[in-house]
Design brief:
Elements: E1 16-18, H1 29-43, E2 49-51, H2 61-67, E3 71-78, E4 84-92, E5 95-99, H3 101-104, H4 122-133, E6 138-143, H5 153-158, E7 162-164, E8 183-185, E9 196-201, H6 215-219, H7 222-225, H8 227-249, H9 261-272, E10 276-277, H10 281-287, H11 290-294, E11 299-307, H12 316-325, E12 331-338, H13 342-348, E13 352-355, H14 363-368, H15 370-385
Parallel strand pairs: 1-2, 1-11, 5-6, 6-9, 9-10, 11-12, 12-13
Antiparallel strand pairs: 3-4, 4-5, 7-8
Helix pairs in contact: 1-15, 8-9
Length: about 375
């Protein structure tokens, strides 16, 4: 079942640290660690288990921080279609983690029906404002999946900015309305001069990308749900938004890495809020205190839905393995399917891989039942690494 070098590490009496990313389409990072913990506690009840989800995509980062011991704070904000939702942010001293998905994730769409032309990131701005009013001086904005392809225009409105048409009227929500944007009024924005705003998650893509579907719209699923005319509408709206916003602050951001993240919320944060992108798992591991939790561990279990060459470019399993290697702690990985050679695994410091595909070949069933299958995998992990 395991691949690569699976020679068990030293027995020891330390804990097992579970530091996994999400299984996209199946389980959040926190859910993956919960299932791994449940399986290990069932087969090795005498071994202490520490859960530390590490969502490199940004999705679920506030939930992960709470799991790591941060204080959970709830606030009522506007959801992607304007209905109120209860959103969670995580707080540790003067640092707050604000998860875009808590306010405008696709899962918050009524009936799951996408509305790419009118969905808004307004609630994310309201959540940022809540963190600021709570005294945060460092805010990590996690830019995961968004139902809104509005380029972060709603986020700016949620913080107190105004988007006006040629008659001086406030624009309605959504990316389509941005075609009528004439001016932005930023006087209502809070003073962020003494606040460090960091963008976390998959913050690599530009706002618009090449000709065709704008990157922000692709991320919000608009290419599949808005149709060709709708995509053209969003493209025009986002281009107008970029033109007006950049002129207002005399700073270009549309082509910066991360501008297209979170349905384009990265653009608004970079252009208008002075944010700094921090891609890769290394930043998240430091933020969540991985080194301290790994100290004294006898085994680290990491993972993600597909372990392949993209993993090696800064995703959670590679970052976890590099960090754990400094203390000589063995690292094994769980995944839906493996796509790395033994040599690639050895170079990445991952000593064994356990794949759902080994016990369930049907991809659909594997995704639907990923939780119980992960618990099954822990039997082999325990047998080989926790004698």
């Amino acid at each position: 079942m395991a691949s690569a070098d699976n020679t068990p590490g030293p027995g020891g009496r330390g804990h097992v640290l579970l530091a996994s990313d999400r299984f996209k389409g199946s389980l959040s990072a926190a859910a993956v660690t919960r299932h791994l913990a449940a399986g290990l506690r069932r087969v090795r009840p005498d071994v202490p288990v520490v859960e530390l989800p590490v969502p490199s995509s940004g999705d679920g980062l506030a939930e992960a921080a709470v799991a790591a011991g941060w204080r959970r704070v709830e606030a009522e904000v506007s959801g992607p279609v304007g209905r109120p939702v209860r959103a969670v942010l995580a707080v540790e001293r003067d640092t707050a983690v604000v998860d875009l998905g808590e306010a405008c994730a696709p899962r918050l769409l009524p009936g799951g029906r996408p509305r790419p032309l009118t969905a808004t990131s307004l609630g994310a701005g309201q959540l940022l404002g809540h963190a600021l009013r709570g005294g945060a001086r460092r805010i990590v904005l996690a830019l995961g999946a968004s139902a809104a392809a509005d380029g972060g225009a709603g986020l700016v409105q949620g913080l107190g900015g105004r988007l006006l048409d040629a008659a001086g009227r406030d624009l309605p929500p959504g990316g389509a309305a941005l075609r009528s944007l004439h001016a932005v009024d930023l006087r209502g924005l809070p003073d962020l001069s003494r606040v460090e705003l960091v963008l976390a998650g998959d913050v690599t893509g530009a706002l618009l990308g090449r000709a065709g579907t704008p990157a922000a719209a692709r991320e919000a699923g608009a290419d599949a749900d808005a149709g060709r005319d709708g995509v053209r509408t969003l493209d025009a709206g986002l281009r107008r938004w970029a033109d007006v916003a950049e002129a207002a602050v005399r700073r270009s951001a549309r082509d910066r890495p991360g501008a297209g993240a979170g349905g384009g919320a990265g653009f608004a944060a970079l252009a208008l809020l002075g944010a700094t992108p921090r891609p890769g798992a290394g930043f998240l591991l430091d933020l969540l205190g991985f080194a301290g939790r790994a100290r004294g561990a006898r085994l680290v279990v990491t993972g993600e839905g597909a372990l392949d060459t993209r993993t090696l470019r800064g995703r959670t399993p590679a970052g976890v393995a590099r960090s754990a290697a400094r203390s000589g702690t063995p690292v094994v990985a769980v995944t839906g399917r493996r796509g790395l050679t033994g040599e690639q695994l050895r170079r990445s410091r991952i000593q064994a891989v356990y794949a759902l595909a080994d016990i369930e070949r049907d991809v659909g069933r594997s995704m639907r039942h990923a939780g119980p299958l992960l618990e099954q995998l822990t039997v082999a992990i325990a047998d080989e690494w926790l004698p």
